[in-house]
Design brief:
globular, 12% strand, 3 domains, 6-stranded parallel sheet, 537 residues, Rossmann fold
């Protein structure tokens, strides 16, 4: 008889966290184990090897995080879909937690249907049925916000609050214009912020509003900034352009490469005339809760928000065309009314804990039934063998470094920029010399070469000649690849181990299995400080 251990549920969580992942991404993943401690959680990164032992563990449920599903919009989608096709055969509940659903929504819809997902969490409040035609009516849909609160976060936010009447900035925010593929709806925040700032300056208010990426404020400095503003601007976020397969996104990107100075109106006319605004896909932003927790009075564009918050009671409503701006200014001058709105909004969104991870996590896990057998010694043996097999992969990955890993996930995994390595470097403010590295990676990804498992193993060993990694580690990885019947297509998913260090000549690029002697290119100096891509809060 197999020995059993007391575990309520055995849960597989698929993700794609990296060194540069945001705190909200980590919270979405690790708060499961924080708030429901009686379960066994196995966190598996998208690009880590899928072992026979992993497949053999009798999971009671699978949670697929949005960072994993984000690869639907990139070059690696086909490889990952094939790599995780075994999920189809699992009879347990499979739960997808989605974000940015409107980006390549048709591909996402097809992928979730292919994996036989049973429950879909989406932050979209408007138009979900249009985004998921294959799954709508067949699967369970639930509202899943882009972020939730928890006690640790609220404690941190409380320390950043300045008493309302002592705050030095009247209205403050940072907003970015979304690319044209999100339609005119993606420009509302930017346009309204700039127009409001101009009018508020004339009216005598102290403003600190910017859409310039150079003015971005990071981390705790951002929280202190917001905690020193009496008011902030807000609205739902989303898209007004339906682009299920990403064809318009690619068309727009290629047009902008050739016409970098084109404005939105020109891009709309050339790339998607008459298609904008047919559907609006929108949901609330994490800033709604952030501002509420910081007790900053919110000026929100008129819309239906969550939590039962109401105009004039919990926030100041602003017409999209700013036609009621004088009324807004009049309310802003009444500290007592505004402080009452702040408290009411705080009580509805924060104090109730309705939008806290302590409620979200149990709701998700309620979709998974308790294990009938607990965790057996056989399960433990599989788990130990699985992690032992991952050791070489983790070893190599740790040697590559976080900067290259972040670039991989942000650039090469996004097919928008694949036509122009030079444009990648320009857009993300990277050194121009990296363009040859991008070219090399693209060359490999676009190759029509296919190989047997033995040839794939040779590929992995040949790769050692190009990267600064332990040959023995890569040899073990290649042997693991052969054991698990990986093909050449899977080579793409291994590039996060050696991204951008491999740098063959731009012309007459050699194949990895070249019979001619291979000269290892110079490696990037470890101590060189490279300017990282700017992030917008």
């Amino acid at each position: 008889m197999h020995q059993r251990y007391s575990v309520t549920k055995k849960i597989l969580i698929l993700h794609d966290l990296s060194v540069g992942s945001r705190g909200t991404n980590r919270d979405h993943l690790y708060n499961f184990s924080k708030y429901e401690k009686g379960n066994f959680y196995l966190y598996h990164c998208a690009h880590a090897p899928v072992t026979d032992e992993l497949k053999a563990i009798g999971f009671d449920g699978v949670i697929i995080n949005y960072c994993f599903l984000g690869y639907r919009a990139g070059l690696l989608y086909a490889a990952l879909k094939q790599k995780y096709a075994w999920l189809r055969d699992l009879s347990c509940p499979k739960i997808a937690i989605c974000q940015d659903d409107y980006t390549d929504s048709g591909i996402l819809d097809e992928w979730l249907d292919y994996m036989k997902v049973t429950t879909i969490y989406s932050p979209i409040q408007d138009g979900v049925d249009k985004l998921y035609p294959l799954n709508w009516g067949k699967k369970r849909f639930k509202l899943g916000l882009t972020a939730y609160t928890d006690n640790a976060q609220l404690t941190k936010l409380a320390k950043c609050r300045t008493p309302f009447k002592k705050r030095k900035v009247d209205v403050g925010t940072r907003v970015r214009y979304l690319p044209p593929q999100f339609g005119r709806y993606g420009r509302i925040k930017g346009e309204s912020a700039e127009d409001f700032r101009d009018a508020a300056d004339v009216a005598g208010f102290e403003t600190d509003i910017s859409t310039d990426p150079r003015d971005v404020i990071f981390g705790s400095d951002w929280l202190k900034f917001m905690g020193n503003c009496k008011f902030t601007l807000g609205s739902k976020g989303g898209s007004s352009l339906n682009d299920p397969q990403g064809k318009l996104r690619h068309k727009i990107a290629n047009y902008l490469i050739k016409n970098p100075d084109a404005g939105f109106a020109e891009v709309e006319k050339k790339c998607f005339p008459g298609l904008d605004g047919i559907h609006i896909f929108a949901g609330v932003s994490p800033r709604l809760f952030e501002a509420a927790a910081l007790k900053t009075c919110q000026i929100l564009i008129r819309d239906e928000y969550i939590g039962g918050i109401e105009e004039y009671i919990d926030y100041i409503p602003l017409d999209e065309d700013l036609s009621n701006i004088e009324e807004v200014f009049e309310l802003m001058r009444d500290d007592e009314k505004c402080m009452a709105m702040v408290e009411s909004c705080y009580n509805k969104l924060i104090a109730t804990n309705k939008f806290d991870y302590s409620n979200f996590v149990p709701d998700v896990l309620s979709e998974i039934k308790a294990s009938k057998h607990g965790i057996t010694q056989t399960d433990i043996n599989h788990i130990n063998k699985h992690f032992a097999a991952l050791a070489p992969y983790q070893n190599v990955r740790s040697k590559i470094g976080g900067f290259y890993e972040r670039l991989w996930r942000r650039v090469i995994a996004n097919a928008v920029y694949v036509d122009s390595p030079e444009y990648i470097c320009s857009t993300f403010q990277l050194p121009a010399e990296l363009s040859s590295c991008f070219s090399a990676v693209l060359y490999l990804q676009e190759s029509d070469c296919r190989s047997t498992n033995i040839e794939f193993s040779a590929d992995m060993l040949a790769m050692c000649r190009y990267i600064q990694a332990d040959t023995d580690d890569l040899k073990q990885i290649s042997e693991l690849a052969v054991k698990n019947d990986y093909t050449y297509e899977d080579l793409e998913t291994w590039w996060d181990m050696c991204e951008y260090i491999y740098e063959p000549a731009k012309i007459n690029k050699p194949r990895l299995r070249s019979k001619s002697p291979i000269k290892k290119p110079p490696l990037a100096p470890k101590k060189t400080k490279t300017r990282k891509p700017k992030k917008v809060v």
